[in-house]
Task: structure prediction
Amino acid sequence: MSTPALPDGRHGRAVDADGASPAGDQEALFAEPAGARRPPRRRVVLLTGPSGSGKTSMVRRLGLPVLALDDFYRDGDEPGLPHRFGIVDWDDPGSWDAGRALVALERLCREGEAAVPVYDIPTSRRTGTVHLSVGTAPVVVAEGIFAADLVAACRERALLADAICLQRPLAVTFTFRLLRDLAESRKPPHVLVRRGLGLARAEPALVRRWTDLGCRPLAVAEAEAAVRALL
Result:
């Protein structure tokens, strides 16, 4: 199955085409495009960690091109989404379009550009598409809580430079997450507190899962140094 053509437009200009793929197309989306066996021009660092662990602030300091994996969430009214705490469980991989994220990431590594969705977390839906270009950077960072789910596929495609899981004390991630979510009005406050407590309880198991999938557990300073060593 051939992948859709990129929409026209300069970097950062919104376009109307959504390009979303249905949930049933996962196997087709993971298929390698023609020419995928050629060595990629750049490689990817997959960066995961608990919500509030400092992923976004770290990549901002690095100044590298970033693919925000949160933008590949599915729309909140899509049938079959997992639920928890009375709402969609946005921490379950079933709420996220892994196939579409991999297609975009491979295009960034091999072609230097890709069409990526824009996702509005407060309304739980995609609101458009932007044309992302990474220029001549040798490394692209793909950041989000589902980054570990792409480790095996990126390694098979010779795209993987490193896979890192950020670690911080539970109390720190809980506090940073709650302050951020309140400031961004992501959900009603009572939902954010209830969700945050549930995530804190589940965090050790999540970190084990991410490391089992191939991510290295590192403190923020260690992770930042590891990425800079690739440049």
User: Anything to note?
Assistant: The beta strands are 14-15, 43-48, 66-68, 83-84, 87-88, 113-120, 125-133, 139-143, 160-166, 216-218.
